[in-house]
Amino acid sequence: MVRLHFACPLILAVLCGSILPVASEDLFPFGSELMLDVAPMHGSKRVPMIEIEDDGSASIDLWCASLRAQATLDGDSITIVPSQTQNDTSGGQCESDRQASDAEILSALRAATNWRRAGEIIELSGPATLRFRLMTN
To answer: Which whole-number Å values give the CA distances from 121 to 6, 46, 102, 130, in the listed order?
Structure first.
């Protein structure tokens, strides 16, 4: 009987400890920086990033430009509406391949319809899939 008395709390603690991390992985990481899972382009250390706040306001940093956006999440659905104004943060030195990549990423963000999380990986999917890494530093 004494063993059972000590075993029950132990079993409960193990079960709760194994359930809680799984539940947090189902949540969108609001307020966290998400870095596009790609290598930097030649001659740059910059990698595109997105951060979505609890209220849906978002900041997007691309290869050359930075802009604001509004994101709406409902379950595993997502809609991202970027602002029309873009700030070229490269000082006018952005190469045409980076500008084209910015346009592709922006198009994929606009067309994203779903998201999913697997640990520190967040995927935004639609006609194209963008894979981001949750920055935990």
So the answer is: 38, 19, 21, 10
For residue 121, give both structure tokens.
């990986």
Distances (CA, A) of 57 to 37, 50, 54, 84: 22, 11, 7, 14
Give the CATH fold of the 29-134 domain. Answer: Lipocalin (2.40.128)
Radius of gyration of the chain (CA): 20
Q: Is the pLDDT reported for residue 88 higher than 80?
A: no
Query: Residues 97-110: pLDDT tens digits?
Result: 999 999 999 999 99
* Residue 33 to residues 7, 17, 113, 133, 137, Cα–Cα distance (Å): 41, 26, 20, 8, 10
Q: Domain boundaries in the chain?
A: 29-134
pLDDT digit string, tens, across residues 30-49: 999 999 999 998 888 889 99
pLDDT at 43 (0 to 100): 81
The answer to pTM > 0.70 is yes
Q: Phi, psi (5° rounding) for residue 97?
A: -70, -35
**Beta-bridge mates of residue 116:** 123
